[in-house]
Amino acid sequence: MKPVVAIIGCGRIGFLLESDPLRYKPCTHYGGTKAAKLAITHACDINQDRLHHFSKISGIPQSHCYTDYQTLLQKEKPDCVIIASWTQTHAPIGIAAAQNGAKVIVCEKPIASDLRQAKALIDACKKHNTTLIINHERRYDYRYNFVKKLIAINEIGSISSVHGFVFTPSKAHQPGSGGGPLLHDGTHLVDIVQYLFGNITQVQGFTTRYTKDSLYEDYAIAHCITTSGIHVTLEAGGHRDYFMFELQIVGTKGKIVIGNGYLHLYKPVKSKLYTGFKDLIPKSIMPKGKPDYFVKLYKEAKKCLHTPSHVTSSGYDGYKALEVIQAIYRSAEKGKTIIL
After folding, report:
1. Predicted pLDDT at 2
2. Residue 264: enclosing H or E segment and its boundaries?
3. Which of 130, 174, 213, 253 gets the most CB atoms within 10 Å of its CB?
4. What gap in Å lies between CA 146 and CA 160, rounded to an integer?
5. What is the domain count for the chain?
């Protein structure tokens, strides 16, 4: 029998971005399930026009489409629930899905708008034996896993510092969501840092609002320290004329710079400018693979429907990312270092 798979939220990351001609496909939850042969059977969205559009493109009958997630969950009892809705709805929907028998939940990042809700979701999944996967997709990206291997074999020596940036054109804040760019975009940055270098245990943060109408921060910067003693700076902000996600990893024998669509390895060579010194010279490298992280995520989810197993991006991982972000907010508010 085919599993009942329900998507709740048919917006950008749920479905609409699949029509972007420039993005590598799949680039949405809908596209990922289709490629992994885990067909979506039911859908829910509060916007009826968007729900109708999703039904038309996906081929899911209108009788399988709902505008109320509670009705869908109680009536259909889906095996797998995909949560691609607003941040503040993640925990309530996830808890209801677990209570109604979902075996697997794939939840969009961030896990929730605050730690209390995140813990409630994780506890509900544990109680009902539900596997929870958080969509921090860079954990599934072959390029970041290649970087992880380079670090493990000391390709650039001992890591001394890491610098992460995420900047977007976004200016709007979602009421009730719990944060600005640090939460909604910076969660990817925090998560990939902890994936590569271990948990962050100490933060000192600063935030700025560009206008008095800003509900949350428009810009945030933080100095962090990991369990292994690596110093990390994180910057997240909106109001830019560009989109940028970049990680600079500095070691004693070189440097790695990775971002959207590029990966550079810097190695020391004899300087042409200074006698007796070496300069870091970049070389573009690209390991073999495809940016099919949505496919990998949903193949993992499909496997968990049959046999519960370890997942690459767990609810605990999502919680730890949110914990760091909340600590940065507290640090900025109180003007002091926060120890986690």
Report:
1. 93
2. strand 262-270
3. 130
4. 19
5. 2
CA distance 163 to 193: 9
Residue at 273: amino acid letter: L
**Is the link from the previous residue into 175 a cis peptide, with omega within 30 of 0?**
no
- Degrees, nearest 5: CA angle 21-186-7: 55
Q: What is the pLDDT of residue 49?
A: 97
Task: Give the span between the Cα atoms of 99 and 94, in whole angstroms.
Answer: 9
* Closest alpha carbon to 246 in 236, 279, 238: 236
Q: Which domain holds residue 93?
A: 5-135
- pTM, full prediction: 0.97
Pairing of strands 254-259, 80-83: unpaired
Domain harbouring 71, CATH code: 3.40.50.720
Q: Which residues of the chain have pLDDT under 70?
A: none
Residue 54 inside a domain? The answer is: yes
Q: Tell me the per-residue pLDDT of 270-296, one tens digit each, with 9 for 90 and over.
A: 999 999 999 999 999 989 999 999 999
